[in-house]
Inverse folding.
């Protein structure tokens, strides 16, 4: 516990006093809040770590609406994380990991097999966990990557140094990483409809991409309304835009909507007062036959709304 506090301290030391705001925002049960507050009295980082852990555990217990393979449910199929791992991973990573797993079955150091076994164990344990995003598989990704590298590296280096260098360059190239966690990989294009809704991109990553998209298309911020699902503020990222979950104003000419709201529904809005407003936005877009314009990143769709008849 002391070691964990030491690791978390650099991220929490500069934000003392933020915990009461986080407790109010995440609305954890009173017993959990009291435990987090006591723990934060020992160390702020430990308190925030406990808050995030308890929040995920309570969401898992209660169930959370999720979109998976065309269906919305509080308990999507156990295959959610398997599909998420495949469709959200870069193709070079998938190829190299598969090659490493095959090499481990044929001939590989014990450490490679132990790492791959640990990754598989974490993956099995995650199947019953919160099915809302691929970030819950990060331990799996780390262990499987390390295990595949330990299995594949010596084999390639022994048989063909040139192939080893090519594989290393591929693994370190922007094709294999350098993308936001949660963005779709090449495999996702094999699905006719979106395979799943992934909350990893709902922390503001695509709001700058939306701002860039609006700028390139000559859309002024005053003509842009945003119905955003996630942990960020559209008005902060795009000054002058209209936050449609905080206002009952008429829809402007252009409306950007998070795909979580489009795929799962307005009931997924984080705050109760935003849910009827999200429902109003979605209903009005449909009633006025708003035209799809473009997608910002992977998580925000931009529409053009025709004037009222």
């Amino acid at each position: 516990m002391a070691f964990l506090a030491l690791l978390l301290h650099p991220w929490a030391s500069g934000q003392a006093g933020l915990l009461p705001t986080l407790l109010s925002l995440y609305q954890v049960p009173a017993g959990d809040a009291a435990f987090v507050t006591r723990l934060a009295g020992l160390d702020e980082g430990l308190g925030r770590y406990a808050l995030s852990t308890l929040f995920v555990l309570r969401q898992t217990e209660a169930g959370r609406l999720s979109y998976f393979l065309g269906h919305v449910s509080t308990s999507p199929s156990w295959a959610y994380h398997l599909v998420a791992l495949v469709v959200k991973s870069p193709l070079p990573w998938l190829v190299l990991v598969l090659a490493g797993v095959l090499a481990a079955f044929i001939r590989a150091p014990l450490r490679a097999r132990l790492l791959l076994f640990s990754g598989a164990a974490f993956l099995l344990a995650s199947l019953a966990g919160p099915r809302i995003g691929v970030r819950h598989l990060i331990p799996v990704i780390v262990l499987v990557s390390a295990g595949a590298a330990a299995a594949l590296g010596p084999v390639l280096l022994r048989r063909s140094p040139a192939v080893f260098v090519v594989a290393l360059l591929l693994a370190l190239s922007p094709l294999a990483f350098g993308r936001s966690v949660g963005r779709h990989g090449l495999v996702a294009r094999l699905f006719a409809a979106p395979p799943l809704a992934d909350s990893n991109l709902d922390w503001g990553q695509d709001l700058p991409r939306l701002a860039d998209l609006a700028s390139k298309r000559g859309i002024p911020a005053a003509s842009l309304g945003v119905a955003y699902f996630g942990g960020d503020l559209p008005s902060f990222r795009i000054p002058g835009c209209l936050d449609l979950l905080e206002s009952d104003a008429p829809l402007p000419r252009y409306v950007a909507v998070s795909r979580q709201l489009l795929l799962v529904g307005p009931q997924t809005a984080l705050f109760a007062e935003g849910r009827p407003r999200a429902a109003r936005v979605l209903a009005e877009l449909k009633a006025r036959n708003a035209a799809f314009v473009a997608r910002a990143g992977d998580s925000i769709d931009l529409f053009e709304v025709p004037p009222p008849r």
